[in-house]
Design goal:
Layout lengths: L1 H19 L5 H7 L1 H8 L1 E6 L8 E2 L5 E2 L1 H13 L2 E6 L5 H6 L5 E2 L14 E2 L4 E3 L1 E6 L18 E5 L3 H9 L4 E5 L2 H9 L5 E5 H10 L4 E4 L6 E3 L2 E2 L4 H17 L1 H10 L8
The protein binds arginine.
């Protein structure tokens, strides 16, 4: 009798936590996943700053278009849901994701170890690097990045981008001027108020082509910038689904088609 009671006590001791489920079940994890939420509400909400040609920009009717926009549309289509694009400041994207205002970020965003402490990233969908647009007026002699690390240099960067973060580390001697808009940074260089604008390769190639008279450029990337989709930490169902999607479109030709559409005229390294 005594033995029976203690056996029951031991069983209860070990089984109770399982029965009451102090942990979370697989079902509950999937319930909370953005993958499930998106399908349930029939809408994928994507955050981007629609000012990063040709990844995200607006057509003549003001509608978002571009490489990332089409990637987001493929995701929504494969999920069988509607899409909503929320246009916001680049520096506000990660906070918006963490606050649950958007399901994911696709915005030419570089995945970095520092950012990956706050959000989770998929595999890269585009590999590139930072380049420099240089002022003919202020820095005609500059042809290498080492020349930018000097006390008399002024470097324009877009607030919160990797150009901003990396410049402080790579060119500690230079003075950094931070701007909200990419266009302001270009203007600084064109007008000779800054020596250089440090930004992503594809943008620098374009600004150089548009300002051949007033600028030159360092077009050999001097950092590694893998663009990836960001989602909330801990959402493995959604992360797996997005990685599978990227793998699938890379294999079935849709990814190459998109690259051809938006980057055919640019000398791009494959990624
Ligand atoms: N790749 C850079 C970064 O992650 C710049 C991205 C800018 N994207 C944009 N939509 N404005 O910081």
């Amino acid at each position: 009798m005594r033995f029976k009671i203690s056996l029951i006590a031991v069983l209860i001791f070990f089984l109770l936590p399982d029965l009451c489920s102090f942990g979370v079940t697989d079902f509950e994890i999937y319930e909370a996943s953005a993958l499930n939420q998106v399908i349930k509400r029939n809408k994928l909400v994507v955050g981007m700053e629609v000012k990063f040609f040709p990844f995200e920009y607006v057509d003549t009717d003001g509608r978002p278009i571009g490489f990332d926009v089409e990637l987001a549309k493929i995701a929504a289509m494969e999920l069988g849901v509607e899409i909503e694009i929320k246009d916001m400041e680049f520096s506000g994207l990660i906070p918006a994701l963490q606050a649950g205002k958007i399901d994911m970020i696709i915005s030419g965003m570089t995945r970095t170890p520092a950012r990956a402490r706050t959000v989770s990233y998929t595999q890269p969908y585009f590999k590139t690097g930072l380049c420099a647009l240089i002022s003919n007026k202020r820095a005609p002699e500059v042809s290498e990045t080492v020349q930018l690390n000097a006390e008399n240099r002024i470097l324009a960067v877009k607030l919160g981008t990797t150009g901003d973060i990396v410049t402080a580390r790579l060119f500690p001697k230079a003075r950094v001027k931070r701007f909200k808009e990419e266009t302001e940074c270009v203007l600084e260089v064109v007008s000779g108020r800054a020596d250089a604008f440090i930004y992503d390769e594809v943008s620098i190639i374009r600004h150089f082509a548009l300002n051949k008279e007033t600028t030159h450029a360092i077009l050999k990337p001097f950092t590694y910038e893998p663009y990836a989709i960001a989602i909330r930490h801990g959402d493995f169902d959604f992360l797996n689904w997005l990685n599978l999607l990227l793998e699938t479109i890379k294999a079935d030709g849709r990814y190459e088609e998109l690259r051809g559409k938006y980057f055919s005229d640019l000398q791009q390294r494959s990624g």
